Prior knowledge:
The structure is a single chain. This protein is an alpha/beta fold. It is built from 9 helices and 7 strands, in the order E-H-E-H-E-H-E-H-E-H-H-E-H-H-H-E. The protein has one domain: Rossmann fold, CATH 3.40.50.720. Helix content is 42%, strand content 15%. Helix 1 packs across helix 9, helix 3 packs parallel to helix 4 and helix 4 packs parallel to helix 6. The two termini are 19 Å apart. Bound molecules: NADP nicotinamide-adenine-dinucleotide phosphate (NAP). NADP nicotinamide-adenine-dinucleotide phosphate (NAP) binds next to helix 1, strand 2 and helix 4. NADP nicotinamide-adenine-dinucleotide phosphate binds next to helix 1, strand 2 and helix 4.
Amino acid sequence: MDQRGLNEVTDLQPTGVIVVTGGSRGIGAATCRLAHATGYQVVFSYNSNADAAATVVADCDGAAIAVQADVRHEADAANLFDAAEEAFGPATVLVNNAGILHEQVRFDEMSVDRWREVFDVNVIGSFICAREAVRRMSTRHGGAGGVIVNVSSAASYLGSPGEYIDYAATKAAIDTMTLGLGKEVATEGIRVNAVRPGVIYTDIHASGGEPGRVDRVAGGVPMKRGGQAEEVADAILWLASDASSYITATTLNVSGGR
Ligand code: NAP
């Protein structure tokens, strides 16, 4: 599709230190690139793909910092925030983006090991990073406040039958965490919101065994197309910015009407 106009810098004037989990590819990478272009100091994590992480650092004119950090591990999450703080100062934004899915199968064919892994990364990993952010950002703990943007999915309200009900359920958990945590820290200088991307052109669909899934599904999207990672990044950075200063504990569908 025509990429013209995606992520053009507008009148947003955000500055701060943004931590993006899973910034090496897909939506996270697009978020890092746009954040850099709009004036943020960017620190992002990757799990295993160091080459992809290096590409994102280069895309950010060498100014971004990539940290190998598995979101499932509390020490890694702390290390990610420490790296940001040492380089640029306390994080002002967390984008809780890292996520996985497994092969498309029926529910009655799924293994418990698979469920444990997808819940461990998508739910526990996001919880760990959000907790780390609250401990550092909350005025209750002496912090200066901040913003958390969780990356959920349209799967949370579609359910993903025949594909990955487990993945969909993890995203419903993210929606609920967004709601509850947003309310819990509303007077502590922290806004918590989520985006729910629809079908977006990234590598994640190959993990599900169908690299071309976006084009198969696109006909069912009211806008009749898949989305670009940059279109999700735009929404994430709007929620991170003061332009959304009265918005918390809510979710924004970025799904072409799906
Ligand atoms: P992607 O292209 O597969 O990228 C996933 C990213 O997450 C990579 O940077 C990967 O790091 C990182 N990651 C995976 N496991 C991790 C772990 N344990 N610890 C730290 N980082 C980890 O996926 P994407 O499509 O951009 O998805 C990003 C988010 O959007 C996910 O939460 C996903 O559920 C959500 N989403 C995507 C779509 C879509 O259609 N693409 C739709 C709705 C929601 P490595 O590069 O090191 O592997």
